[in-house]
Amino acid sequence: MKKLIFMLVLAPWFFQAQNNVALFHTTNSGEAKFDKEHPEFTVAPFELLEGMIVVQAQVNGETGSFILDTGSPAMVVDNERNPKENGVAMGVGGQMRIGKTELRDFSFGNIHKKDLEGYVLDISQLEQACGRDLMGLIGYDVLKQYELQFDYSKKIILIYPASEAGRYHASKPVKTIPFALSEHVPVITVRVGGRKAYFGIDSGAAVNLLDTDYLGKLGDSVLSNVNEEWLVGLDNTRQLVVGANVGDCKIKGNCFPSMRYLFTDMSKMEDQLGSRLDGLLGFPFFKGQNIAINYKKRKIYLW
């Protein structure tokens, strides 16, 4: 079985001394809609549950709820549907049991796959966090040939072939951010407190992460509202970590507002990815944006 790395982390919604992560629950469920003039273009509504993007998709003729997770390497289904777990994957908190399966057919909007290789994982922790039965996760292997534009104000995802994406943009992006692909994870360069850092982009992560080394590197002028919080991983491990608001964050010279980060040891994830990774940008980064990820062009667009 190939090396599997899952970046998804949950918000500290329980066991928490003080929760300063912005979370909200909105309802916008429904089927994806196609543009009759451009059938390759899809508008898919989503729900935002505890910072995670939940969409409706279909596996083997059964429709259900899936987390759209750019930090997942591949398609994942709940182990209740296929209980075989004979391998190991790496999460932020450590290792977890995982199995392999083949999905006869999969559909999400204009994305259709036959005989898709998938993985089996216990996602009960995600179901508990969402308060929803979940069929699985939609990851990189499914999304890599497309551009996905997340409009958080309308709670919709626009999906189109990556090579044709530009002609669907209603207006020119305000910012274009190039990224490198480390395994399946988009990695961008960020300056935090004047220091160069590398951040993974993960639509499935409910919180931002930053390596613990930065607690000693960033001064009081950058860090504020520092306290202890619980970090919960996909592998169901809970770690009491330091949380703080971090300011002075710049991407391609553009200043971004102060965001909440949890500080954890990123070295295990670096070892698995084989490249430097100082942090992870999740829901707090995505939530205020109209943002698109184009894997083929390796660019992120902001409006």
Q: What is the strand tally?
A: 26
Q: What class, by secondary structure content? A: mainly beta
What is the global morphology?
Answer: globular
Into which percent range does the helicity of residues fall?
under 10%
Cα distance spanning the termini? 39 Å
Report the sheet with the most strands, covering strand number, pairing sense and barrel closure: 11 strands, mixed
Cα-atom radius of gyration: 18 Å
Q: How many H/I helical runs? A: 5
Strand content: over 45%
User: What is the mean predicted local confidence, pLDDT?
Assistant: 80
Instruction: Identify low-pLDDT runs.
Output: 10-29, 32-37
Short description:
The chain is mainly beta and 303 residues long. It is 9% helix and 48% strand.
Structural write-up:
- The protein is mainly β and 303 residues long.
- Helices cover 9% and strands 48% of the residues.
- The protein contains 5 helices and 26 strands.
- The chain has helices spanning 124-130, 140-143, 213-217, 267-273, 283-286; strands spanning 9-10, 33-34, 42-45, 47-49, 52-59, 62-68, 75-78, 87-91, 94-108, 111-121, 136-138, 146-151, 156-161, 175-178, 180-182, 185-192, 195-201, 208-211, 223-233, 238-246, 249-251, 254-256, 259-264, 279-281, 290-294, 299-302.
- Strands 1, 15, 16, 17, 18, 19, 20, 21, 22, 23 and 24 form an 11-stranded mixed beta sheet that branches. A 7-stranded antiparallel beta sheet has the order 2-3-13-12-25-26-14, with no helix packed on it. A 6-stranded mixed beta barrel has the order 5-6-11-7-10-9.
- Strand 21 and strand 22 form a beta hairpin.
- The relative contact order is 0.21.
- The model is unreliable at 10-29 and 32-37 (pLDDT under 50).
